Amino acid sequence: MKKSFLLLTIGISLVLSCQKTEPSIPIDNNTLDGPVDGLTTSEKLQFLRGDAAFNNQIFTKETGLGPLFVASSCGSCHAGDGKGHPFTTLTRFGQTDSSGNKFLATGAPQLQNCAIPGYEPEQVPAGASSSKFTPPANTGMGYLDAVSDDDIVAMADPNDANGDGISGVANWISLKSYLIPRTGSLVNNGRHIGRFGKKSGAYDLLQQTAGAYNQDMGITSTYEPFDTYSGVAIAPEVSNQTLSDVVFYLKTLKAPVQRNGGNTAVIKGKELFNQINCAKCHIPELKTGYSPIGALNKKTFYPYTDLLLHDMGSGLDDGYTEGNAKTYEWRTPALWGLGLSKNSQGGTYYLLHDGRATSIEQAILLHGGEATDSRNRYNGLSDAEKQHLIQFLESL
Amino acid sequence: MKALIFSILGILTLQSASAQIDSTLLRRKPKDTTGNLLNMDAVYNRPFLSVARMPVALGGYAEANWQHLGTNGISEGHQFQMRRVSLFIASGISKRIKFLSEIEFEDGAKEISVEFAALDMEFHPLFNLRGGIVLNPIGAFNQNHDGPKWEFIDRPVAATELLPATWNNAGFGIYGKKFQKNWVFAYEAYLTNGFNDKIIDNKQGRTSLPAAKENTDRFEESFNGMPLITAKAAIRNSKIAEIGISYMGGVYNKFADDGITLDKKRRVDVVAIDMNATLPKLNTFINGEWAWVTVDVPTTYIQQYARKQQGGFIDLVQPIYKKALLGFEQSVISAACRLEYVDWNVGKFTATGGNIADNVFAIVPALSWRPNKQTVIRLNYKYCWQQDLLGNPPAKTAGFQAGFATYF
After folding, report:
1. pLDDT digits 0-9 by tens, B271-328
2. Which of A244, A311, B76, B173 pairs with A380 at a CA distance of 20 to 30 A?
3. Contact A69 B202 (CB under 8 A)
4. Which of B390, B396, B400 to mutate to test the interface with A (most CBs of A within 10 A)?
5. Of B341, B345, B395, B162, nearest in space to A87 by CA
6. Which tens digit of pLDDT belongs to each residue from A166-181?
7. Over 60: is that where the pLDDT of A55 sits?
């Protein structure tokens, strides 16, 4: 009887305490996934559907993969919603100026470097310039999407009127026929401001998402109906509902949260970041305009970008471009989440547009063009100051 | 009035039926205790029940459990699972011809399959024929997988997510056995239907031999017309240990269709070793296996689909209490621990030269109580670390599982 009682007691204790024996949830600011605060229940459900499609749906031949592709799922390129790894780096090719891409007939703009059995993957055609693009982190993109065009234009200084050597410009792009301009979207000669992609070549997250399904995985949709191998419009391989869910998921992934913000070295590093003018392009604070998603409507956030194109010098000029950007111009990448990049890149940093920099310092030193002065100022810092600056960047 | 008559008839019929169940007519077929049995004998090394002089013996086993597991702080909560019910029927058709079949119901009736259905014809101890739906003898677990034989609720990851246990196919083969003093040598070799291109084109997003099981047509049609060869040799000394080495290989892709060549023949090859032993004096049972998988994946395919995989497990089972408990005279309580590891992608990224991860390591301490030889009550605590392809910080999964498995 005593033994039975003992066994029963052990059993009940086990059930009641089981959660304490399981791994704890990582501290919120150490991860990139999870929704923004303030979603309604129906929005949370759509977030979960998008999460499942983005992270769990792996395409196969039967479900439409390829025949030419780069990856078989969204999650392959954006592990943990963070920056990608050179293993799935994209290669874009064929465009050198604003007159457009001359290699569309031979597979441009994106190289599909893998193929299902029986097919041969693409090669960059002779004579085409190309550039490699490391997959970006997905987080906080809903905030960037909701910044008003007026605010973006206000940050631009195309003629360097203030004489600081920095002249951000917007990439005015032609809108895909299926896109609906945001409320208050500015138009310049029939073109709109692009804000996503390394060259700001994409208008919004629907274009980015439908394009990635098509160009990265060979999945057609009503938006991007052309098979990347045959060039023929085929039946959609992903539904509009799924695309809508994934776009919603991307819009409502939380923004990265700064860590160790109160650390003395981090505070000093932030001061240095401003002093050497990094913050002129990597603008710390932005505001969203109107957003139909209440949680994103008129919010202040801290992405460290101006969403503009900047001349980054000949060292980062790959001879390839998109929209009206010059080949040496790159959109200022958001620095939020930078310190967590290693957790999605297999323990190593792969920074800048193509992952060529394997440390934050290396990335700083590869800045040129409009960032030359800031780079030189960085070189003029003491070793301790450099460490503070890097610690600050790692805290983002 | 009619209802009353039917009720009386019903009661009489029930009484009559229950009177027909005479427990003395039900005989348990004695289990082999010679110590000469091998893992490959597992399908017949089960407690069967025969009825009177009928040439048919029946048996089965069932497994059910509760679990509460969490991954990185997120849990599905309390889960109650009836993992499987398996029924087997053995029939001695004549002195040297027998037939055994096993039908398995998994997760309720979500998956129903004929797991084993084979005719055995005995010619000579070293030469016998078997044909039908057979369990391919790769490793040990695939043939020796009945829940009541194990102290762990989950099957080994290496057996189910690297190797495709339970991996069965339609085919034919030979087997034999040779005894000499304390030694037993045995072999099996089969030609069966085999794999298909699901192993590199699947929802798992990795090279997955188990994904081939999605092709349920394999019992009626070979995917590519090429037989899968599976062979195993094992040797056992009844006082020392059993060691087995097995091989399974064949072409997995559809290299031709309608007479037109589509691709080169692409092979999948698996080598496995298994061993088990009981340490003298301590009575510690050690059981493990390790497998290496090689797949000819097209060079133009994405690297997340591995060319090489490996993995295995080792179980340690230490009886710590052997006497009556709670009125069960033959109780045995054991402490056990399983260590397991699978690397689904052995190789390096061509882009960086860095190691491709995609692996899992798990440790499973356990307590088991066997109130009799057929039944085991199990309590497991599982902790596993699973890394993605890139080697990012592992997802940690842990929690308790408790349940039973029993032959009936």
Report:
1. 999 999 999 999 999 999 999 999 999 999 999 999 999 999 999 999 999 999 999 9
2. A311
3. no
4. B390
5. B345
6. 999 999 999 999 999 9
7. yes
Nearest CA in chain B to A122: B300
CB–CB of A21 and B392 under 8 A? no
d(CA B342, CA B360): 5
Residues 6+ apart with CB under 8 A from A250: A50, A54, A138, A141, A142, A205, A208, A209
Who contacts B404 (Cβ-Cβ below 8 Å, separation ≥6)? B63, B64, B65, B375, B376, B377, B378
pLDDT of res. B288: 97
Query: What architecture (CATH level 2) is domain B46-407?
Result: Beta Barrel (2.40)
Domain boundaries, chain A: 30-395
Q: How many residues does chain B have?
A: 408
For the cut 50, the answer to whether the pLDDT of residue B14 exceeds it is no
Tell me the CA end-to-end span of chain A in Å, nearest whole number. Answer: 60
Q: pLDDT band at residue B16, thresholds of 50, 70 and 90?
A: very low
pLDDT of A362 over the 80 cut: yes
* B114 at interface of A, judged by CB pairs closer than 8 A: no
CB contact, 8 Å: A4 with chain B? yes
Q: Calculate the CA B1 to chain-centre distance.
A: 56
Amino acid A11: pLDDT: 66
Q: Which of residues 123-182 of B touch A (CB under 8 A)?
A: none
Count of CB contacts below 8 A, A vs B? 116
CB contact under 8 A, B352 and A71: no
Q: Say yes or no: B197 contacts chain A, CB-CB below 8 A.
A: yes
- From chain B residues 367-396, the ones with a CB under 8 A of any chain A CB are 379, 381, 388-393, 396
- Three-state secondary structure call for residue A144: helix
With a CB-CB cutoff of 8 Å, which residues 57-86 of chain B face chain A?
A: 68-75, 78
Q: Residues with Cβ < 8 Å from A199, sequence gap 6 or more?
A: A171, A309, A321, A322, A323, A325, A329, A330, A331
pLDDT at residue B2 is higher than 80? no
CB spacing of A21 vs B399 below 8 angstroms: yes
Contacts of A21 in chain B (CB under 8 A): 381, 398-400
CA–CA gap between residue B108 and residue A222 (Å, rounded): 40
Q: Which residues of B touch A76 (CB under 8 A)?
A: 205, 302, 304, 389
Q: CA-CA distances (angstroms) from residue B341 to A341, B289, B367, B391? A: 27, 11, 21, 15
Q: In the predicted model, what is the mean pLDDT of residues B98-106?
A: 94
By CB neighbour count within 10 A (0-12 exposed, 13-18 middle, 19+ buried), where does A211 fall? buried
pLDDT in tens, B376-386: 999 999 999 99
Residue type, position A103, single letter: F
pLDDT of residue A30: 83
pLDDT at B8: 46
B314 touches chain A (CB under 8 A): no
- The pLDDT value given to residue B269: 98
CB-CB under 8 Å, B398 with A346: no
Closest CB to B300: pick one of A3, A72, A120. A120
Selection from B167, B193, B315, B308 nearest residue B246 by Cα: B167
Quote the pLDDT of residue A9.
73
pLDDT tens, residue by residue, A110-142:
999 999 988 999 999 999 999 999 999 999 999
Contact A116, A66 (CB under 8 A): yes
Could you tell me the maximum CA-CA distance found in chain A, to the nearest angstrom?
89
Helix (H, G, I), strand (E, B) or coil at A85: coil
Chain A residue with Cα closest to B76: A19
